[in-house]
Design a protein that fits this description.
The complex is a heterodimer of chains A (about 260) and B (about 200). With about 260 residues, chain A is an alpha+beta fold. Chain A folds into 2 domains: about 1-110, Beta-grasp domain (Ubiquitin-like (UB roll)), CATH 3.10.20; about 115-250, Alpha-helical ferredoxin (Fumarate Reductase Iron-sulfur Protein, Chain B, domain 2). In chain A, about 30% of the residues lie in helices and about 15% in strands. In chain A, the strands form 2 sheets. Chain A has a 5-stranded mixed sheet. A two-stranded antiparallel sheet of chain A has the order 6-7. In chain A, helix 5 (about 180-190) runs antiparallel to helix 6 (about 195-205) and helix 5 crosses helix 8 (about 230-250). Chain A is elongated, with a radius of gyration of 22 Å. Chain B is an all-alpha fold and about 200 residues long. Chain B is built from 8 helices and no strands. Classes of the chains: A alpha+beta (about 260), B mainly alpha (about 200). At the A-B interface, helix 7 and helix 8 of A face helix 1, helix 5 and helix 7 of B.
Chain lengths: ~260, ~200
Amino acid sequence: MADENKTIKLIIQRQDEPEAAPYEEEFDIPYRNNMNVISALMEIRRNPVNAKGEQTTPVFWDMGCLEEVCGACSMVINGEAQQSCTALIDQLEQPVKLEPMKTFPVMRDLAVDRSRMFDSLKQVKAWVPIDGTYDLGEGPRMAESKRQWAYELSKCMTCGVCLEACPNVNSNSEFIGPAALSQVRLFNSHPTGEFHKAERMDAVTGEGGLQQCGNSQNCVEACPKGIPLTTSIAALNREATVHSFKEFFGSDYHN
Amino acid sequence: MSENREFFYRRIHSLLGVIPIGLFLMQHLVVNHFATYSPEAFNQAAHFMENLPLRIFLEFALIYIPLLFHGIYGVYIALTSEMNLKRYGYFRNWMFILQRASGIITLIFVVWHVWETRLAHAIYGTEINFDLMAQILSSPFMFGFYVLGVVAAVFHFANGLWSFTVTWGLTVTPKSQRVMTIVSLGVFIIFTYMGLASLIAFAS
């Protein structure tokens, strides 16, 4: 094959531990057909030698499904936050620059801690309550058209790319970010999930909530799953308007 | 209701930007535009505004208090965001940055403008009329400063109108938001024209 001597240059931002200072390390690795960023990283793990020929520690990263469904392998590749499993080497400009997403605390090298996203999902009650002391039975049916629409929102894999893209998610703010907000819309429109709508709206207009969105709309451009995040946010804004009016002018009961 | 008042403050901030501040801005630019007809026409229009009943009350309720809240809280909002235009150079991200930049410029301009006109009138009894503006704008530096201030203020209002409709849930779909972008562009063009035409009329 003509490609036998071809190499790929990787520039990787590394960090030895959460509190350590980051540094850059370059790697030249042999090219193979149809490589993705993860297989390139696996090559470094197999033979941890940097571009200067020095023995080094293997680069650490997070991964799971390898098919853009779990969201674990997100990193900043050539300046763009995306999943490293579906980032194909053939489609990337060289040298390929890999950095961890800066919105999250770095654990080591390219692996970040996305706990804040899962905490946000808990904060906004992003689930359908089905557990009780007795069998709650089947829920109401859902229109097929609505199910198809809801399926799009359910594609969120908590990968963190939208938070990375958001100028208002940073160390100065408590903003929970677009992902959790869109999940509120998903669960509020579920026939059984709707039971907790008022509680979710309280959460979403509370600390770090909806109000901190600045409408830069980077999230919807960056989302690898094409989730209509800004439509969800605007729809929640409308819901929050109604919710707050009901709460102020309305009755002692609302949902 | 949770203890957190931020949602309430942000909504008040959004509302005040349009009602009354946006309405006041439009009214102000309309009155200024009389300067393009003649100095007398402008003085007459300005005197009509000066002679509105309960003027000092109107000024505080519709201008000073809303403007101070919107301006100061706005600086706080601007400072809590981190620009990332380099990585995400999308149209709306540009608008996001420009909204914050124009807000800061407008605040500086308005503070200066109020000092030079309304406060000078209150403290030194300076007469506010066509000649005062003609004198201020005869300096090329001040003319440039006023052009920048007027364009920034009108941009901040027009683009703010766009985010107002999103914040209150009026425009939800991408299509309605695109239409609103065009509407806000129209507002920007019309009022920038009126503002600049008035400045040129004062200066010439």
